[in-house]
Amino acid sequence: MSEDDVPIEASTPVTGQSRMDAAWGSESDSVASVARPSTQTGQVFEQVYKPWDGTLNPRWMRNWAIFRHHLLGIFRKGHRPWGVPTKLFLIFVFIASMTDVALTLLFAILGEPGLYELWGVGRNNLYAHVLGFFPRNMLFYPLVAALLVGGVISEDRSNGTSALYFSRPINRFDYVGMKYLAVASIQALIILGTLMLYYFADILSMGRGWAWIIDTFPMFLTTMFCGVLLIVTYTSIGLALSSVSRGKFFPGIALLAIILGTKTLAAIVEGLFDKSILYLISPYDSIAHVGQALIGANMMYDHPWVWSLVSVLAFNAISLYVLSVRVSSMEVTRE
Amino acid sequence: MIPDVSQTGEAVEQQWVPQPKAPVVMLNNVGKTYGRYQALGGVSLALSGGVTGILGLNGAGKSTLFKLLMGKLRATQGEVRLFGTNPWKNPAPYARVGYVPENESLHDWMTAFDFVTTFARLHGLTRDEAKLEAERVLEFVGLTDVMHKKIGRYSKGMRQRAKIAHALVNDPDLIILDEPLQGCDPLARTTIMNVIRELGRMGRTVLLSSHILSEIERITEQIVILHQGRLLAIGNVHAIREQLDNIPHTIELECSDAKALARDVLSLDSVHGLQFPTTTKLRIFTHHLGEFHKHLPTIVVENNHNVMNINNPDDDLQTILGYLTGGSR
Amino acid sequence: MAKDRGETIWTALDRKATAIAEFTMRQYRTRISTWVVLGVGFLSISVVLLFYIDAMNTEIEAIDNDGDSFDSDGDGYVDGQEFKLGTDVYDEFSHPGLFNPPIQPEPASMYINEDDYDWDYSDARSVASTGYDDDGDCRESQLLDSQKDTNNDGIPCNIRIVFNSLTGEYQIFADAGVDEDPDEDRYGKEAQHRAFVLAIGKLGFVFLLSIFIPLFLATGLIRDEMTSGTMHYMTAKPIARGEIFLYRMLGYLGIVWPYMLIMCVLMALISGLLGPGDQFFRFADLGVWFSVLIAALLATLVYGMLFSFLGVLWKYGIILALPIAAWELGMALLSMSVPESTFLRMSIVGWSMSIIDSGALLVWPDMDMFTQAGSWAGGSNEGNSFFSFESEALPGHGALEWAQSDLGLGMGPYPTIIVSMMVLLAQAAFFWFIGQLVFKSKEIE
Amino acid sequence: MTYEWVIETKELTKSYGPHVALDSLSINVPKGATGLLGPNGAGKSTFFKTILGLIQATSGEGKVLGHDIRTEGLDIRSKIGYMPEYEALDNDMDAIHQVRYSGELLGMNPVVAMARAHTAMEYVGLGELRYRPISSFSTGMKQATKLACAIIHDPQLIIADEPSNGLDATARDSMLTTLYNMVHSGGRSVLMSSHLMEDVERVCDSMVLLHKGKLAAQGRIEDLKAIDREIEIHVWGSADELEQAMSQEGLEVRREGRIMRIKHDGEHTTHRILKCAAHTGAQIRRMHEYEASLEDLFIVIMERFGYGVKSSEDLLASPAEARRVDAPEHMGGSGS
C-alpha cells in the first residue's frame, strides 16, 4: 500500500501511535500497544427476587404524595428539587415581608406610641402588607410567583418524567391540581404566614384585649381573603403560562411581563389621559382595587370596584380554562 | 474581520492551510479534568486515514475526546491538534471535518433539506451549491424521499442519518461520529455501517465511538480502547489480543473425532494444552493464535478431519474489553 | 466543478452571515412564542392608541379662564362685554343697555375661549414680545395707552417673555386682557398629542417593547442552543464563535427591526391623521417618529446584545437580566423627571430617550414655551389675570409636563442625537465584544 | 381476575389526523417475556401508550391483565410497571428519592415506598449508588433507575421501552439479566421493545413485529427463524484471496468485512472451506453454522415490506470531489 510510507513527522511526540489501516482486509503489519489494567477486580452480583404483595392506597393518598413532593421540596432534600436561587429568594422575601412585624415589635418595646401607630395593625397597613405595590407587589410577590411557576408544569415534559409519572394510576387533573395547590401553599406560607405573624405580633406586643381583637379581626380576615385572591390569581396565570410553554423561564418572565407590563401600560394611559379604566387589564391593580374596597383603605382608582372584581374573576377563569385545556391534551412523551 | 482576541502570538491566517505532514488527529498527553473528576488523563494518539473505533464503557471519555477534538472543550493539559492546528483556538480545520454529536436534539422545526443546506452554507458554499450538496448527501444517506419533511417528525434512525448527512456535506477528510448507531433499527444501522465503511475505503479518516461491540467489529478492526479516561489499548483488535499472551487463548473445535484431531494438532509448537469437554469437542490452548490458525486448515485438510465448528471465545472485543478493564464497571 | 468560491473573505463571510441570520429568523418564525410576544407588544401599544383616539375625538370642555362670562352685577350684560364697552362691571345700573343706541346683551358663550391661543413662533429667546388680543378687550377698550401696557415693555397689548437662564424657564408678563382666555380644546389637543407621541415613544417603544421583546427573544439566542445541544452543529463548522454570536444577532434584528419599523409607521400614520391641526396630515411629526424609530432600533440592538451576552454568561442569565430590567425601569422614570442625572449615563434607556427628546425639540422648537404657556393658562394660574380666578393649568399641560423632558447633556438637539447614537452603538459593540469573549471561552457540553 | 393473555387487542387503531400510528392491530401477548420489534417509527411507543390508557385508541378494543384499556386505565396502571424509552428522570434528585416518589405515586405510603425503593435499587444493582444524584449517573445507571421505578410495586407486567438502548456491554448485560430474572425467578411478564435483536433473543420467548403500525409477524421466536442455513467464518489475513478461492470452488459467499457467510452446500462445505483456507494461507478464526438471528429475520421481513438496505457508491462521484484537490498529499491518495 502506498500510504504506508506516509511519514508521521519525527518530531511528533506520540507514544501510542499507530498507523491505522483502512477498515478491513488489514493484513500483516498491524501494530498495537496495550496498557495493562492496574487492578483486576471481579464482581459477583447475585439477584434475589423479592416479591411484594402490599395493597396500594387510593386516590387521595396519591394526590397527597404529589402535593407533599412539591411542598416539602422547599424545605428538604429528597423531594422536588427547587432551584437554589428560588429558595434563596423565598427566604429573602420571607424576611423582607416581615419588616412591619419587626418594626411593630421594635416600637412596642421602645414604647413610642406615635411611631407605633404608624406601623401597627390598621386598615392601611394590613392592606399594604399584602397588596402594597412598592416593593411588595413590584419586587417580591410577583417574582416569587414567577420563580415558583417557572417550569413547574413544563419540567415534566422537558425532563421526560411525565412518561414515568403518568404511567402511574394518576389522573392528569389531579396531578396538575396538586401542583397548583402546592405552589399556592408556598406563596401562602410567605404572604399569609407573615400577615398572621404581623397580626399576632401586634396582639402580643401591645397586649391587646378582646375588644380590639373583635374590632380588628374581620378586617384581618378580609385581608387574608385578599391575600388568597392575590395568590390564586398569580398562580392561575403563572400555571397557565407554564402549561403553554416548554421552557423554564418563559412562564416566569411572561408572568412578570403581564403583571408589571399591564401596570406600566395603565400608568401611561393614566398619565396621558387621566383615565384609570385601563387598570382593569392589570391583574395586580384589579386585586388591589378589590382589596381597597373590601378592607376599606384609600381608593386609588376612579372606576367602580365591582368592575375590578369581575376583571379578577375573568383573569382566573381564562387562566384556568387555558390550563385545563392544556392539561387534557398534555403529551406524555418527552418533547 | 472579527478580532481573534484570545490569540497568542501571530495573527490567524484567513486562508487556512493545513500542515501537510501533520497527522489528521494528534493528541499529545492530553488531559481533561472537571474539578476533581478526571474525564481524560494523559492520552497520546495520532491517527491518519482509515476507520477507527473508539471503544469504552459509558463515561470512559470517548465523548470528551471528541469534544476536545472539536474545540468544544479546552484541554486542561497537553496539546490537541487537528490537521496540525489547535482546534480550541482556530475553527478553520473544521472545513475538513464532519462531526456527528452524540446528543439527540436536532432542529426539529426545519426540514432535513433546510438543515443540511444551512449548515453547508457555513462552509462558504453559495445557496445553489449548498442545495446541490444537500441533495447529494441526503440521497447518500437515503433520506431523499422525506427530506422536505420536518425533522421533528423523523424517527430516531432518520434523525441520525440527517445528522450524518449534515456532517458529510463538506466532503470532509475526517469524520467524527459519536455513537452513530445508537437507537437505530437494524435497517438504519446496516445503512449507516455501509456508509462508514465506504468512507473508510475512500481513505477518509473516520473516528467512531460505540459500545455495541459486535458492531464495531463489523466496521473496523482498528480500535482505541479508553477506560476511565486512560488510553488502554490502540491498534488492531487481534494484534492487541495477541499481545496479551500471558493468558492462553482458547480455541474450540467441533469435529467428528476429537481425539484423532488432537493427536495431529499436538504436533504444532504453538499448542500448549488440550481439553475434551465432550467427545466431539476439542478445546485447544495456545499462546500464539496467529501461528496456530495459520497451520490449522492445512492439518485438517491433510488428515481429512471433519471439522464443523471453529470457535474462538476469547477473540472478540467484548472479551478484550472485559479483560483489559478487569471486569469492573 | 472548479469552485470559484472564496473569492474574497467578504463573500465567504457574507454567505455564512446570511446563512445563520436566515436560519435564526426562520427559527423565530416557527416559534409560537415569538408571535405571542410580538402580538402582545402590538396589543399593548394599540390599547394606548385607543385611548389616544378617544381623547382626540372628545371635545375638551371650554373653561372660562378669566371669568368674564359671568354677570357680576346681574344687569344682564356679562362682565366681558361691560368691560369692553367701559361700563362698570359691579354696578347694576351701569351697562351698555343705557347706551344710545342701546346695545343688546351678548351671550355668555361669546366670552369663553374668546381669546385664542396664538403664540405661533418658535424660538422664544430671540423674540421677546408676542401675543395678540383677539377679542379686542385690550386693543379696543377705552383705556389709556399706559394702562394697556401693564407689563411696561413699551408695547401695548402684548405679552413679554423673559428667558431666565438660571432656572431655564420663561417668565411671562402679559398685558391685561391679552390671551387671557385661551382655547382649551386647541391647546389641550395639541398638548395631549405631543405628550402621547413622547410617552409612547419613550415608555412604550423604548422601555416596554425594547426591554421585554429582547428579554423574551434574545436571552436564549445562544443559551437555548447550548442547553438543548444543538449548538454542537454550528460550532463544528469552520466559523468563529464571535461570528456565530454576531450573525445570530443579525437574525434577531431581522425579526425585531422590521417589527419596530412597522409599529412606528403605523403609529405615525394614525396619530398623524388623527392629530390636531389644520392640515390633513401632520407631516412634521414624522421627524419625531423617526427619532422614536432610531431610539427603538438602537435600544433593541443594545438590549439584545446585553441579554444574549447574559444568556451566554450563565445558564440562569435571565435571572441577571431581571435586575437590569428593574434598573432600566428606574432609569426610565429618572430620565423623565431629572434628565441631567449622571446615573442616566450608566443606562441604555437614558441615552435612547434623549434621542427622542432631541427629535421632539427639533420638530417642536416651541416646546418649552408651549409647556410654559399651558402652565400660565392665560394668567389664571399666576393670579395676575384681570379677575384673578383660582384656576388650574390648561388641560393636557400635566401630561405634557410628565412626558416631556429637557436635554440632559447640555448640548443642542443635533449633537445630542449624534452622541447618543454613538454611545448606544458603542454599548452594543462592547456587549458583543465581551459576549463573544465569554462565548469563546465557554466549553460546550 | 383470570385472563388467558397478558395483553390482548382486537383491531386496535390509533390515528393522529390522517396519520395512522396503529392500524387495526390484533395482538395476543402470552405470559412470560415478549419482545416488541419494529423499525423506528413503527408505532411501538404508541402501542405502549395506548395499552397503558394514556392515549385513547381511535377504535378497536384491548385488554391488559383482564382490564379494558378504554375504561380501566387506572387499574391497568396500578398493576404494570412502565419503563419509558427516553430519559425520564429528574436529574436533580437523588436516585433513591426518585424511585420512592414513583412508588408514592402508586399510592404507597412514604415508609413502605422507601423500603421498597431500597429493595428495588438493590435488585437492579444500584445498591451502593442509591444516594447519589441522578445527574452523576451514567446512561446504564439511569436505565437501571428507570427499571427500579417500574418494579417498585412488583407489578404483574413490566413494559420496557428500549431497556438496553445506549448501554455498554456490562450495563446491558445486567439489564438483560435483571429482566430475564424477573421472568424466570419472579414469574412476572415482560414486554420489551428493542432495536438490538440480540437482546430480545436473550430475554424473550416470543415476539411481535410491527411495521408502520401494522402487525408484521407474531409468534414464538423459534418458530420464526426459518431461513437458509449458512456457515459463518471469521477470517484474518488474505481475506480477498480466500473469497476468490471459494468462489472458484463454487461456493456462494457473502462478505461483510472480515466476516463471510457461505451458503450451506452439502456435508462437505466446511471441509471445502478449510481446504481453500489451507490453500491461501488464510486464518479462519471462527467457523460455525450461522443461526438466522432476529436481525436477519427482521431484514428479510422488512425487505418484503419494500425496505432495502442501502448501499452507497456515490459519494465520490459528487461535485464535492473537486474540492479535495487542496487536500494534503497523504489524504488525497488511495480511495476507491
User: What is the second-level CATH architecture of the largest domain in chain D?
Assistant: 3-Layer(aba) Sandwich
Number of domains of chain D: 2
Average pLDDT of chain B: 81
Taking all Cα atoms into account, the compactness measure Rg of chain B is 24 Å
What are the secondary-structure elements of chain D, in order, as H or E?
EEEEHEEHEHHHEHEHEEHEHEEHEHH
Order of helices and strands of chain B: EEEHEEHHHEHEHEEHEHEEHEH
Percent of residues in helices of chain B comes to 25-40%
- Write out the CATH superfamily name of the largest domain in chain D: P-loop containing nucleotide triphosphate hydrolases
Described by strand count, sense and barrel closure, the largest sheet of chain B is: 6 strands, mixed
Helicity of chain D, as a percent range: 25-40%
Main sheet properties of chain D: 6 strands, mixed
**CATH-assigned fold name of the largest domain in chain B:** Rossmann fold
First-last Cα distance of chain B: 50 Å
Number-wise, the strands of chain D total 15
Low-confidence stretches of chain D: 308-336
Helix count of chain D equals 12
Please give the alpha-carbon distance between the first and last residues of chain D.
65 Å
Largest inter-chain interface? B-D, 83 and 71 residues
> Using DSSP, what is the number of strands of chain B?
13
Instruction: Give the class-level CATH name of the largest domain in chain D.
Output: Alpha Beta
Q: What structural category characterises the helix and strand content of chain D?
A: alpha/beta
